[in-house]
């Protein structure tokens, strides 16, 4: 397959780039050239620009676009909604319009934040559950989903949550840094979701893409936890004292953007399609730390 990746410099896109490069002809498009992408396979393009996006995609004429690019500043979006909507909603529309020309499939990555966290079934949100985004970021991602659904019939929308992985440090890595520096580890008692390991997700995206089973799919590692449980597990793995934990609520934090309290995603469509569930978040976390922390 000829595959075009957006956001190849990012946390997920870096792993998508390397996983899809094994067995497919891959090109990346975006604003900032990432060093791991050879220049011959790089196309400079800002997704906010409709004409540039159309030109880049139709020139490449890929079979599939894996769309990992996103405006991800959840709090920043509250004071800069235009930018969030430009990238996450209109950017997705620009890609979808370009995909129409040669019937290219689009795999767009989205978020658990499209749910408000109040009406989840006990074991997490299913693909058939109603969305209700609480923040500007979440609205912009949902709007992007709608453009993709409305403009294409060959699309995958993949919602995921709480990413961590080797491409850049995330909350999981910061927990270790804070604790090792003797600092308190802030962790929310009222946020529960599924930490998801980007190499696992990238491999699952590849399996999904090759299946041609289009539509909306929730994809995360197995299990779920609060931020406190996540931080506690990380400290336990590293033999660091639990006394460093500083449990807080969203109200204590005073984040500009509201986050869902419970946004765990059931991987129902994935499971019903007969795919093997992704391993538990704890097993993935163990691999992450064996691969990254010792080399830092
Ligand atoms: N991170 C999480 O915990 C999380 C949770 C749930 C869902 N997701 C979803 O997973 C996907 C990947 O997230 P991530 O955390 O891997 O992202 P990330 O590390 O923040 O990377 C985002 C990428 O998007 C690119 N980008 C931003 N604006 C662009 C534009 N106008 N034109 C072209 N490229 C642009 C950035 O390139 P530049 O460097 O050039 O700006 C960057 O490479 C997103 O759809 C996100 O919503 C993430």
**Total number of distinct structural domains:** 1
In percent terms, what proportion of residues is strand?
15-25%
Low-confidence stretches: none
Q: Between the first and last Cα atoms, what is the distance in angstroms? A: 35 Å
Mean pLDDT, to the nearest integer, reads 95
- Please state the second-level CATH architecture: 3-Layer(aba) Sandwich
Tell me the total number of β-strands.
13
Major pleated sheet: 7 strands, parallel
Rg from alpha-carbon coordinates:
19 Å
CATH topology: Rossmann fold
Query: What's the overall geometry?
Result: globular
Name of the level-1 CATH class? Alpha Beta
Instruction: Give the spatial strand order of the biggest sheet.
Output: 3-2-1-4-5-6-11
Let me know the CATH homologous superfamily.
NAD(P)-binding Rossmann-like Domain
Q: Structural class, judged by helices and strands?
A: alpha/beta
Helical content, roughly?
Answer: 40-55%
Secondary-structure element order, as H and E? EHEEHEHHEHEEHEEEHEEHEHHH
> What small ligands are held by the chains?
NADP nicotinamide-adenine-dinucleotide phosphate
Fold and architecture overview:
There is one protein chain. The chain is α/β, with parallel strands linked by helices. It has a single domain, classed as Rossmann fold. The chain contains eleven helices and 13 strands. The protein has helices at 11-21, 50-60, 76-79, 81-102, 136-151, 171-180, 198-211, 227-237, 250-253, 268-272, 281-292; strands at 2-6, 25-30, 42-44, 64-67, 105-111, 155-160, 163-164, 185-188, 192-193, 196-197, 215-218, 225-226, 245-248. A seven-stranded parallel sheet has the order 3-2-1-4-5-6-11, with helices on both faces. It starts with a strand and ends with a helix. 47% of the residues are buried. Bound molecules: NADP nicotinamide-adenine-dinucleotide phosphate.
